[in-house]
Structure formats: structure tokens, C-alpha cells
Amino acid sequence: MATQMFEGRGHAAVYQKYRFAPGEELQRAILTYLKEKGANPPELVVDVGCGSGQGTHFLAEHFKKVVGTDISEAQIQEARDTSSSPNVSYLVCPAEELPFEDASVDLLAAFTAAHWFDIEKFMREANRVIKPGGCVAISTYTLDMSLHYGNCSEKLTKIYKEVWDVLSKHSHSKVKHVLENYKEIFEALPFSDKKRITDIYDKIPMTVAGVVGYLESVSQYQVLLKNDPEAAKSLLQDTEKRILETMGVSSRETPLEFWVRHVCVLGYKGL
Ligand SMILES: C[S@@+](CC[C@H](N)C(=O)[O-])C[C@H]1O[C@@H](n2cnc3c(N)ncnc32)[C@H](O)[C@@H]1O
Questions:
Q1: Global pTM exceeds 0.90
Q2: I want to staple 121 with a disulfide (CB 3.0 to 4.6 A). Which of 26, 96, 102, 207 is the partner?
Q3: What integer pLDDT is reported at residue 11 of this predicted model?
């Protein structure tokens, strides 16, 4: 069954502001795979579960026509409000019922979204819409991020992990796919030519405000906010205070690095 977790306007606005785009190494892994496979020169690329367009912009830089789709109207509204590329359009629709003709899509991508889908139905739909000679790229960043700043990276990462110990109590059962490095999603992809990479690392430039905003955007925080708003708000306030104190700075705009690991499932639908 489809899961709707990103429906609120407030959540979508935070999401748009703080979620980062696919990093360079993830981009490279996808583009290299397409080249290796000698896949169709992509005409139509679809970004499923596009959110407010984090991955869609990357795709639009490389491909002729990109359609971002998402089940959440609020996310698509944010995407439309921030996109200016003439080769991008957005649609509200579930991943399990894509409004594309059979064998019409050259590349079907999903960034940090596939674990929310009904995987069996989505895979059937992906197989239907992808052209022979087309590809799929399904990725997610994992939860084992680390924070890096001067000589206090270890302490900052410990703070970050402690916050996740609290947040993970509010995880949806589907987050297990992320914890399992998309193993089940890989196995469900109905192509014989496929691979799963679990060690793509990207260093994402952030600020203290960006890290706190990212935490605010995760589904676990949004569940806590709904159930116990006071606890949720003070968790973020305390976290920001602890991070600033550890770094020995006062500005929320102080830059630091967020190191993320990506898992990527890549597949080629033979001719
Ligand atoms: C964690 S966000 C990822 C957004 C974006 N791709 C990114 O890289 O940040 C997951 C997105 O998947 C969407 N989503 C969840 N279930 C969906 C479904 N069944 N069909 C289409 N979109 C779905 C949510 O609305 C949300 O925008």
C-alpha cells in the first residue's frame, strides 16, 4: 500500500529548504552506469517520488526531458515554485500508477523515495513504462551520516547519533529498507542485468542551521512533532545549542560538512 508521509504544506516547505540534492559521487555513479550500458540516449527521464525536486534538477542538467512525479501535492507545489528549467515538468501521481505509455521512459530514477512505495506494484509499473534498452536508478542516502568540523568531528557525530537514537523510535516500518541497504528493493527489480552499490560517499556542504533543518525534515521528526510538539521543538533547540557549543561558535550559519553514504540500485532493461 502507498504510504503518505509528506503531505503537509509546512513539512514540504521545510523539506524544500533543507533537503540536499544528490552529491557528486552519486551523480557520477549513475551517469557512469548509463555510459557503461550504452543505454538509450535518454529522451524521457522520470524522477519518481521527486519531493520538491532535489534529484530532478540534477537530471535536468543532463537529459532532454525530465518529469518529476510525487504523490504529495504539497511537495509538487514546492517543486513547481522553485523550478525554472524549461525541460522539467511535474505531476502529482502515485509511483504505483505512472501516467506514461508502455515502453516510453528511457530512465526511471527515484532518490530517497522508493522505500515509501508499494515495492511490488512499483516494480511492475517500472517494468511497464521503461523502454527496452532503458535503465533504472533507485538510490537512497542511509542514516549513518557524520558531521565534520575542525577537530571536533567525533563529538559532533556523537551528538548527531544521540538525536537519531531518539528519532528512530518514531521510524515507520518502511525505513527498514534503508537500514537493509535496499536489499529487498534490489531483489524485487525484475531485470536480470542489475547491480547494487552500497558504498557511495558524498561530502555535502552544510551549515549548523542546515543540519538542524535536515533533522526537522525527516519523517521521524515530523511524527514526534505531531505526537509531542514540545519535546520535538526542544530536541532541535538542544541539538543546535550542543552543536554550536561543541564547535565553539555562535552563528547558525557556520559551515560544516555532512558526510553521507548512498546506496544505489541500477538496472538495465535489455533490448
Ligand atoms: C524522502 S522524500 C524524497 C524526495 C526527493 N526525491 C529527495 O531526493 O529528497 C520521499 C518522497 O516520496 C514521495 N512518496 C512517498 N510515497 C509515494 C508514492 N507511493 N508514490 C509517489 N511518491 C511517493 C513523498 O511524498 C516524498 O516527497
A1: yes
A2: 96
A3: 83
